[in-house]
Design goal:
α3 crosses α12 and α5 runs antiparallel to α12. Helices cover 62% and strands 8% of the residues. It is an alpha/beta fold and 770 residues long. The longest helix has 42 residues. Strands 1, 4, 5, 6, 7, 8, 9 and 11 form an eight-stranded mixed β-sheet that branches. Among the domains are: 200 residues, Rossmann fold (3-Layer(aba) Sandwich), CATH 3.40.50; 110 residues, Orthogonal Bundle (Helix Hairpins), CATH 1.10.287; 195 residues, no CATH class. InterPro entries: Fe2_transport_prot-B (IPR003373), Fe2_transport_prot_B_C (IPR011640), FeoB_Cyto (IPR041069), FeoB_GTPase (IPR050860), G_FEOB_dom (IPR030389), Gate_dom (IPR011642), GTP-bd (IPR006073), P-loop_NTPase (IPR027417). It is a multi-pass membrane protein. It holds the Pfam family FeoB_Cyto. This is Ferrous iron transport protein B.
């Protein structure tokens, strides 16, 4: 395996060198492939822990880069989003294509599933048509060989014009060879473009070896004419499409690709007008015989890769590749047994999370309490001490104490994903979705948003982009925030662990099921009223079952947990400080505080008497504590946050919420993680024993305004009310209107409040002695 090199990286483009740790990274290679082909496994095997995970600019599609040293060359590996083609049908395809078009990568390692080579080669053909240097990594060769499939790699290389290498991502076999081949073809391409007399930015010269596929007697001559005109255009040198073969741009124009049309218009308006006229002529000619250019090009791709696969793939065995998966699916994807097993898997995940996570969670809570006590004992009493203890430690510590639970949950989700069972869950759930008027493609956005708990509504909303029906897309988008995202999980775990400690796992399971039920019911309501329309069926791929690797689980788990931790550091620290300030200022008027302070001084002086009887001392200590609590409550109510919370308490008290809870829920609109940090800040400020600060759970249990009814009402409210700010922004991007953002805020919050009031008042009526 290549030697890994730890580093950090910034963005670059073209042939520029990126400095990392003082070294020049002269090569940038992309890893591309279909979903479920083992692409990310290959990436993880090559880079190990030396990765940077973020998001592509302007979108929420995950961006992953890895840093390695191989054969004396420092290399950046870019793991592109999984895509079936380079069209602009999904956000993932757009991102992958834009990275390739930018010229920021010198070669592509195209990972294909060796067992279904023909399907993977559709993307390979498009990469080669772009003129990119490509190495084909025929992955999962161990599974292919086990089912009697063999591949003529030399023949495949000749026909595709790209080196083909057998690989096994899980064991690392062949990865070194694939990386070496990609490095070599990248260097060869770069050297050829720098030969004397050949301009480095000339698409005509650089892409002379691009793959040419025949699309029939009508399109071929037109493509040649379009290709020649594009290659001769001076304006194309500064276009985003300057790094691709002119023929590939011509194909994109014929398929009415909006981004390609816009790019050509910006680069050469006259040429764009001529090309538009040609495209209209082609569409009219094809329309007269009942065809269209997009379908004809797709047929050409399919016919080409079918011939390649027939010439290179030999099936010598009698066993079917997916025979084991088929046998398992007879049970796991069964209409009845499959649904019961899925519920059992979800229940087991929560049992494991609660039981295993409770121990380290308790240790962390104790550590933060000890840290708060140490800081109070070290620093003099004042604003600085209050800021550190009541703002930073109480706020962030309350969130970080749930890291063990989040870590375990993400590990279990990684196992479900990597094993292939996640797709079966989606398949089983689709039968229910159809009943509620939702498209089958809604399944994955719901799961991504937290349908199995621990997801995020932001990529979930983005995933609705592939849905064709606007009404089904909106119904999905508006109810996705009900799912148990990773930010809500700590809130659920806090309330469940505090008020239902003996049935924590059962309660968590019930919460997840309730989020699904409410999402379905609200979606059905929307589809019967403001979003009426017919539901359409689902078409999806079922990957084979595979054994997850420990390495893959650890990497996936760490990536997601690290994102959670970064959010705690970058968002919650300043937010906790802001909330602390709002709960500290303005200070209570001295005249208002004077009666309380006089009474505290009188009671404290009385406690200094050595001859005070024990019973009288106990009564006096109790009275002192009560006066101190009244003073602190008055101080908190006088602050900006207290004033706002008190104003809202007139209405929210019907749901059992105090002003502290109101302020926490307002902070939750910015980020749901802030609910815990705000409660921690509020109750730390009200805590009367700085030498022995209690955990947030203990403070809630000790507060007489809290009970199981309050906890249930808050659980329902947090589940349903307005999404976080970033999710609202993404809803605006995907819906194209602020109207639906306003609808999401108003409708969801009113629904949440009504449900919370109903839950709390029902609890009072049946279980509270009032």
């Amino acid at each position: 395996m290549p030697e890994s090199l730890s580093a950090t990286v910034g963005a670059r483009g073209g042939n520029a060198r990126t400095l990392i740790g003082g070294l020049a990274y002269s090569l940038r290679l992309a890893i591309a492939g279909n979903p479920n082909c083992g692409k990310t496994t290959v990436f993880n095997a090559l880079t190990g822990a030396h990765q940077h995970v973020g998001n592509y600019s302007g979108v929420t599609v995950e961006k992953k880069e890895g840093f390695i040293r191989h054969e004396g060359q420092e290399i950046i590996l870019v793991d592109l989003p999984g895509a079936y083609s380079l069209s602009a049908y999904s956000q993932e395809e757009v991102v992958a294509r834009n990275v390739l078009l930018s010229g920021a990568v010198q070669a592509v390692i195209n990972v294909v599933d060796a067992g279904i080579l023909e399907r993977g080669l559709l993307l390979t053909a498009q990469l080669r048509e772009m003129g990119l240097p490509v190495v084909i990594a025929c992955n999962m060769m161990d599974e292919a060989r086990a089912t009697g499939i063999s591949i003529d790699f030399l023949r495949l290389s000749e026909l595709m014009g790209a080196i083909a290498v057998p690989t096994v991502g899980t064991s690392g076999n062949g990865l070194r060879e694939a990386l070496s081949a990609a490095r070599q073809v990248a260097l060869d391409a770069e050297n050829s473009s720098q030969q004397p007399g050949i301009p480095a930015a000339s698409p005509c010269e650089i892409h002379s070896s691009a793959l040419h596929i025949s699309y029939g007697p009508l399109l071929d001559p037109i493509l040649e004419t379009m290709e020649k005109r594009i290659a001769e255009s001076q304006g194309m040198a500064s276009s985003p499409y300057a790094h691709c073969a002119p023929r590939w741009l011509a194909l994109s124009l014929l398929q009415d690709d909006a981004e390609a049309v816009a790019a050509l218009q910006a680069a050469d308006a006259d040429l764009a007008a001529d090309m538009a006229q040609v495209c209209r002529f082609v569409q009219e000619e094809l329309g007269s015989i009942g065809r269209d250019a997009e379908g004809l090009i797709a047929d050409g791709h399919s016919a080409f890769v079918r011939k390649i696969a027939a010439a290179c793939v030999v099936k010598t065995g009698k066993r079917h590749r997916l025979s084991l998966s088929d046998r398992l699916d007879r049970i796991l994807a069964h209409a009845v047994w499959g649904a019961l097993i899925m519920l059992g898997v979800l229940y087991a995940m929560f049992q494991i999370t609660i039981v295993l996570g409770s121990y380290p969670q308790g240790w962390l809570e104790g550590a933060f309490s000890a840290l708060a006590g140490a800081v109070r004992g070290t620093l003099p009493e004042g604003l600085l001490s209050s800021l550190l203890v009541d703002g930073v430690i109480a706020g962030v510590g309350g969130v970080l104490s749930f890291v063990p639970l989040v870590l375990i949950m993400f590990a279990l989700i990684a196992i479900v994903e990597d094993s292939g069972y996640m797709a079966r869950m989606a398949y089983i759930a689709d039968r229910v979705f159809q009943f509620f008027g939702l498209h089958g493609a809604s399944v994955m956005p719901y799961i991504i948003s937290g349908g199995i708990a621990g997801g995020c509504a932001i990529p979930g909303v983005m995933a609705t982009r592939t849905m064709r029906s606007p009404k089904e897309k909106l119904a999905t988008m508006l109810t996705l925030p009900y799912m148990a995202c990773g930010a809500k999980l700590p809130v659920y775990l806090l309330l469940v662990g505090t008020f239902f400690p003996h049935n924590a796992a059962n309660m968590m399971f019930a919460i997840i099921m309730l989020s699904w039920v409410l999402a379905f019911c609200v979606a059905l309501l929307l589809r019967k009223t403001v979003l009426r329309g017919e539901a359409t069926p689902l078409v999806m791929e079922m990957p084979p079952y595979r054994m997850p690797t420990v390495r893959g689980i650890c990497i996936h788990c760490w990536e997601r947990t690290w994102m959670y931790l970064k959010k705690a550091g970058t968002v919650l620290v300043p937010l906790s400080m802001l909330i602390w300030a709002a709960m500290t200022f303005p200070a209570l008027d001295p005249q208002t505080a004077l009666p309380f302070e006089n009474e505290i001084a009188r009671l404290s002086a009385g406690l200094e008497r050595e001859d005070l009887p024990a019973e009288a001392r106990a009564n006096q200590e109790e009275a002192l504590t009560k006066v101190q609590e009244e003073l602190d409550a008055e101080r908190l109510r006088h602050t900006l946050a207290g004033s706002l919370g008190t104003w809202l308490e007139g209405a929210t008290s019907y749901a059992g919420f105090s002003w502290r809870t109101d302020v926490a829920l307002i902070g939750g609109i910015a980020a749901k993680e802030a609910i815990i940090s705000t409660l921690g800040t509020a109750y730390a400020l009200g805590e009367q024993d700085p030498e022995d600060p209690a955990s947030l759970a203990e403070l809630l249990r000790a507060d007489p305004t809290w009970n199981q009814g309050t906890a249930l009402a808050l659980l329902v409210f947090v589940m349903l009310y307005a999404p976080c700010f970033v999710t609202l922004v993404v809803i605006r991007q995907e819906s194209g209107s602020w109207k639906w953002v306003a609808f999401s805020i108003a409708f969801n919050t009113l629904l949440a409040f009504g449900m919370a009031v109903g839950v709390y008042q029902t609890y009072r009526f049946f279980w509270m002695d009032v």
